[in-house]
Write a structure and sequence with these properties.
Blueprint: H1 3-15, H2 18-25, H3 29-43, E1 48-50, E2 55-57, H4 59-85, E3 91-98, H5 99-104, H6 106-116, E4 120-127, H7 129-134, E5 141-145, E6 153-165, E7 176-183, H8 187-199, E8 204-212, H9 215-223, E9 228-232, H10 233-236, E10 245-247, E11 249-250, E12 253-254, E13 256-263, H11 271-281
Parallel strand pairs: 3-4, 3-5, 7-8, 7-9
Antiparallel strand pairs: 1-2, 5-13, 6-9, 6-10, 6-13, 11-12
Helix pairs in contact: 1-2, 1-4, 2-3
């Protein structure tokens, strides 16, 4: 058994489907099924039962998954120990990052990091900030939006101003009745948007809400004239010269979406973690 096989079992249990796991681990669905078959043959036990909704662990599978978690944890621990005592920067760096930041900023940052430290393996997980916050102890470093993580060292990377966009102009003295397109996000962002809409209810009225799952879909719907969209500057800077927009402000103060770098105490003793944090803190995030 390879460490990759144990990690695959943990992903299958977490995600719950072969198809979803294949997308995350970046191999084909048949390849995932074949590896699972090999693992079950290795242990001589069925690990998962397939149901219409998700994979369910068998009693034997529960014990095997406990063993898998222990093996992966020991593997990571020894890598971190060796990295901490080495004069070279190596080992594994685990990062959990907001999807918006991972798409907009992280590719360039990781390109620099892997060039500078080619012996470091990067394990990156992306998703909604609220989900990352719930599992932040699993990672060396987390980059989240909204509120910072309690009981962590949290460093503000940048404040992301919010804007409302539309294909139709925002005219003073005329109430704007338009649908509002919203994308799936966490409660803190929804609170920011609702606060601004309430404050400007005499100027802008959302006739209805169109909900989509991705921020990029929200942008495209707005561009097609389906309604207004409230977007952070980090993903909408290219729209500003083409579409009418207003900054989200309350009593002259800009409403922003804060981005935080968070890590647990002692993490910077690991050279690969400290090197990444130093690189990240040297970036200019306010240049869109």
């Amino acid at each position: 058994m390879k460490i990759d096989d144990y990690e695959l079992l943990l992903q299958l249990e977490k995600i719950g489907t072969v198809r979803g796991t294949a997308k995350v681990v970046l191999i084909s669905q048949p390849a995932v099924s074949q590896r699972l078959k090999y693992i079950e043959e290795y242990f001589g036990e069925q690990i998962f039962i397939r149901t219409s909704k998700r994979l369910k662990l068998t009693p034997s599978g529960e014990k095997i998954l406990e063993h898998a978690a222990e093996v992966v944890e020991r593997e990571n621990s020894i890598k971190n120990m060796l990295a901490a005592t080495s004069t070279d920067v190596r080992g594994t760096l685990s990062i959990a990052c907001s999807s918006v930041i991972s798409q907009r900023f992280l590719p360039g940052i990781l390109a620099k990091f892997t060039t500078m430290y080619p012996h470091v393996s990067v394990d990156l997980v992306t998703g909604m900030s609220e989900n990352i916050k719930q599992e932040h102890t699993k990672y060396h470093v987390t980059i989240v939006r909204g509120k910072k993580i309690k009981d962590n060292t949290s460093i503000l990377l940048f404040k992301d101003p919010m804007y409302i966009f539309d294909t139709e102009p925002f005219q003073k003295g005329i109430v704007k009745d338009r649908p509002l397109i919203s994308f799936k996000s966490d409660d803190s962002l929804n609170d920011l948007m609702n606060h601004w809409l309430f404050y400007h209810q005499n100027d802008i009225k959302a006739l209805q809400k169109i909900s989509v799952d991705q921020i990029e879909t929200c942008k495209q719907f707005m561009k097609q004239g389906l309604g207004m969209a409230i977007l952070p500057k980090s993903v909408s800077h290219t729209l500003m010269d083409k579409y009418p927009h207003l900054p989200l402000e309350v009593e002259g103060e800009a409403i922003t979406r804060d981005t935080w770098l968070c890590y647990q105490g002692g993490m910077r003793k690991l050279p690969q973690v400290n090197s990444f944090i130093e690189l990240l803190l040297g970036e200019e995030f306010d240049e869109y």
